[in-house]
Amino acid sequence: MTWLLIAVVVLAVLMAVIIAAGKSAKGASGQPFPYIKKDCLLTPAERSFLGVLEQAIGGQYRVYAQVRLADLLAVRTGIGRSARTIALNRINRKHADFVLCDKETLEIVCAIELDDASHQQARRKERDTFVEEACRAAGLPLARFVAKATYTIQDVRESIQQVAVIKLEPAPKPNDMESQNPTAQLSPATDSQDKAPVCPKCGGLTLLRTVKSGAHAGKQLWGCSSFPACKGYIPLGKQANR
């Protein structure tokens, strides 16, 4: 009889847990929440650019992605309630692709927009014009970049410094990373290195290397500078390998 009573109590507890879990997955109306997790915060183009951006700023600033304009801009005081509501609504659903902040104080230093082909559409152009004007009025520097397959770190640095007063330490030279890959060596061609593509795996800097051993010995490739932590590479003249 005692065991039967215990079994009944355990069953009741389990039923209560199941019911509570079902309720927690529903909204106030009793309907299930209609949400699913997105695969990734950034698009492949944004992810690749982020790798270059992080190297361009040299760890001197923090980089945040997909930041609401409402978290970057505030509506000034002294305007009516209706005008304030309209102003807030215009920035609530807009985001900056990337934001640079001071590493210590988190002061907002610069907003960055990466423009892909969709920015050629009339509606996107209107949105871009509004964002530029809003940032200009608020005194927030805004740097724009056209999305493309490759970037040079120096160009990214110079573009940011043209709009924002920031101090950046010199970018590391490719030869500083030569010892990171035991099976490949850097090519002496420095001009090609200035146009290095980004790593297809991590979006970081790639180095022009010559394979020293194995079946592909003697061949050149763009190898990730973070090897062996990242083994992404791009054979010269071929598609990226992951």
Automatic annotation (TrEMBL):
Polar residues biased stretches: 177-191
Domain of life: Bacteria
Annotated ranges, domain DUF2726: 41-161
Annotated transmembrane regions: none
Pfam families: DUF2726
Region ranges (Disordered): 171-195
Protein name, UniProt field: DUF2726 domain-containing protein
Organism of provenance: Geopseudomonas sagittaria
